Amino acid sequence: MTNVDRATTGGRPRIFLVEDHTVFRAGVRAELGDAVEVIGEADEVAAAIELINERLPDVVLLDVHLPGGGGQAVLRGVLPTHPEVQFLALSVSDAPEDVIAVIRAGARGYITKTISGGELLQAVYRIAAGDAFFSPRLAGFVLDAFSQMSAETGTLITRLDPELDQLSPREREVLRLIARGYTYKEVARDLTIAAKTVESHVSSVLRKLQLSTRHELTRWATDRRLV
Amino acid sequence: MRRSTDARVLAGICGGLSRATGIDVTILRIGFVLIGLASGVPVLMYALAWLVVPVEGETTNIFSRAINDRRGIRLVIAVVPVVVVTQIVVSALHIGFVGIISWPVFLAVGLTILTWRNAGEAERVWMDDNLVPMLSLGSDGGGRAKLVLRAAAGALLGAGGIVVLILGHPSTAALRPLGGALLVIAAIVVIFGPWWLSLARDLMSEREARAMAEERAQMAAHVHDSVLQTLALIQRSADDPQNVVRLARVQERELRAWLFESRAPGAISEDATMLAEGVGLLQRHVEADHGITVQVVLVGDCDLTDGLRALLNAAREATVNAAKWSGAPQVSLYAEVEPHAVMLYVRDRGRGFEPAEVPDDRQGIAQSIKARMARYGGTVVIRSLPGEGTDVELSMPR
Fold it and tell me: I need a surface site. Which of B84, B178, B339, B395 has the fewest CB within 10 A?
């Protein structure tokens, strides 16, 4: 079930790459090496949807910026019919609105392309195991999004589902440490909680992010377009 | 023995001596001044020690550099005729009892010239900042108080000279040797005058050349810091046209400001008006200067105040430290704007250190971060363990 089990039982996650830069695809293949099984590649939206629906990989590495509709279009083309496929988003540009949009469309994690090979593998394992993976950058975006929401709509929050629109203090702490560059293990040690608990906090944040119906979240994203 | 850098009035010799012997530095200083006024020999010894004893943290002394300074040695030789002239006047007036006008003092002056010209970079900066204003008594555009002080000092010296002249020689006949002395002085001036003049001219042109070299170095440093680094960044983000345009625009603005409004670019304190902008500048500079990746995560944004500028400068210091010492390829910088404060964390996964066993030079850096923050009411917490990296937590009220 966890990444360790996978590694020891020899069940290598089956990976699909959706990415329009050939050089980067080759680089990712080389970095992941034998630890995973790359079962396919695509460089644009239509081909990606077709191939993923056909081959059903464990994890799709999805470029946020993609010709023909972006990473979101791929998510919309796969998840309704095959919700078991997990998506890990990656990009170079880090525009918050794109990242949040892809996460809200169903990706379970986000990493920047500058990530090291070892960390990339960690992220892939975590996503394959059904967990969420937050890079420091994503943790920052999420904290920013939620703090703006509560600042702007303070009194309205009670009207809708308050659970979904606010982070708990503990979730906030966890995100803050991730944003500071801590690994899950270090977060767990710092807060003296179990690593599993850290994972469940992150998953719960992801759920809030995806299910929150507040349009402030989308508005926050568009406001940020100027940054 | 080393010359002290923190307990120093002039060269830090009393401070160093006090550390070596355990005698209180104030007692040493008072004794030194008293004996110095009487005989002048300690003054010479002081100048010699300045030249020969290395400053704290250095292994070579100033003398090893001065030996190659031809122009400086010529200057010292030029002092010799002045000494001769003064000695003649002194003996003519029979005022040899005033110890301060004796040959050791003049020799000390000569040695100090050598010291001045050949001191290390750090010491020279210190002298320029602390001793030059003291000597000039604010002659360049100083306030009224300094003018009065200078006039008073001049009047006191003049009056002292006249009193010595009159008291020492009640009969005018005894002033006759003074006439002879004046003739000798005139002769020396005629013989050495042109040489002194050319020496002065030499010094002037040397000064000009140095100023020019400094200006060129500054220009080169600036072009390197801004233009070349931006070009490198543009190459790195070639596949992101939006970013290229942004970089080019920022650089253009900076260059214009520098060329036509003579505003020094680069400094966080001057260019940025918002926290995000300042953090971005910090990241760019450290990445370009130290070849390390600075991973920035910023939550919220606000206007920069003086306190927050200090926060950014302290953060830059911490980031540069991590780049220099940790050995890690990446530093994480996280900043969050809270209602009443801005929190900023700098973290690396490098080799770390034992905070209790901090070497002296790093202690200084920590102090500079701490002092900088404390000035505006901010706080610093540094956590580190050998092998586990370093975590610097900075907090500054808004």
Answer: B339
